[in-house]
Amino acid sequence: MTTLKAEKRSMSIKAKRLRREGFVTGNIFGREIPESIPIKMERTVAERLLKTCNKGSQILLDVDGQVFDVLIKDICFNSMKGLVEEIDFQALVSGEKVHSVAEIILLNHDKVISGVLQQRIQEISYKALPDAIIDKVKVDVGDMRVGDIIRVGDLDIAKNKNIELVTDLDTAVATVIAVHAAAETADEAAPETKQTGNVL
């Protein structure tokens, strides 16, 4: 399991200053933690983590030598600067179900040639014990054709007895629509423009 190193953060130093100095701030919370623990981690370390882990991933968090089994609960990005600013973690408790999400990853989308593939949702919400947590759901869409729909209920995660789905089973995950239908959708979304001729 991936281990991330962090250290406790002094609340006397503002988060903005820490971010300017190259840190990402965050908090650890959980049922067995009376008060959330403010932490900081080097941005380069946090960015390296996020290349393989994401919201919903289970990792080990080493805070000044104390190791927590945690879930990445939330990630805050600054879209203007293109930087991660804060990551919050939930400390897991053995035998206690946790609410999490699994990222949907579509495989073989380049093999869909008879229409336009559309991904309808980005993640699936569920509840599970710590030892049953998953952070990614891979969906093979290579055999899909126009009119096909893959729903949450069609996925392996829906058949996993250790996972209690929160996302509705009928929710569409991916669909394939005809090319002309996709073009019509794009036309409807485009703003109307008026053409005027030059007056001589």
From TrEMBL:
The keyword rRNA-binding applies. One of its GO terms (biological process) is translation. CDD domains: Ribosomal_L25_TL5_CTC. Keywords: Ribonucleoprotein, Ribosomal protein, RNA-binding, rRNA-binding. Residues 4-89 form the Large ribosomal subunit protein bL25 L25 domain. It comes from the Bacteria. GO terms for cellular component: cytosolic large ribosomal subunit. One of its GO terms (molecular function) is structural constituent of ribosome. Residues 114-178 form the Large ribosomal subunit protein bL25 beta domain. Pfam families: Ribosomal_L25p, Ribosomal_TL5_C. This is LSU ribosomal protein L25P.
